[in-house]
Amino acid sequence: MCQDCGPPSRRSFARFLAAGTGLTVLTACTHEAPKAGTPSSAVPPASTSPSASPTTARATVAARPAPSPTKAAAGKPSRFSLTDPTSPWLIVNKHRPLAPADFAPADLVRPAVATTASGEAALLNSTTAAAAEAMFAAAAADGVALVLASGYRSFAAQTATYNSHVAARGQADADTASARPGYSEHQTGWAFDIADGGGACGFQPCFADQPAAVWVKANGHRFGFVVRYPWMFHPITGYYYEPWHLRYVGVEAASDMAQKGVHTLEEYFGAGAAPGYA
Predict the structure, then answer these.
(1) Could you tell me the pTM of the whole model?
(2) Residue 125 vs residues 77, 104, 171, 214, 258: alpha-carbon distances, Å
């Protein structure tokens, strides 16, 4: 997500006018258009294809079984903590910082998927990594190439990133594009950004129309993922639309959200809106 982008020299800020709404939206920072990395080979499992047109590029990845859904109590799921950083239902936003602020996952691994990331940015926690491998393989079976563009980011790295935004644009503007240290989903290992195998519209609003974004929006819940910052829900999430930013919450919660038409974790778990820092 943009809140975890690199230094200013590697991106630019832009504004676009949302069609038919008259709303000027601050877009996410723009990286160089990513290209698919070289994945390992395996036969991907069959999956249900959405109506989107696939890219010609295919990512064949080594897949592990997706984590099994949990069995929640009757009614709204209430099995996992919303504050523990090791919980898949953790809610971290501008009102809910990580505790401890410098939390680091103990089980970071590099998933066997196509990636343009390197170093710590190519890592995810082990649960998210396994689910990502299964999802990337299913997308490949449908002719859609997903690419891991940015994964884990440590507290130290996020501090440097946020400070570079502040130095370049001031704190008020920085807070619209970069998470403060200790407030980033990327620090948890539960979230990552994707790119399209064709490299089009990386970290730009037009990415929403690329095959990768269309596919994960329609199918991500089957593997436990949600698009964390959906269109026009920034008054609740605190961030503008980021169709590339995926968050693992587990198959049960993600599927329940999709079935009920609930778009944000704040609404689903009753955590309250977080448009700005408290």
Answers:
(1) 0.75
(2) 22, 10, 30, 25, 24
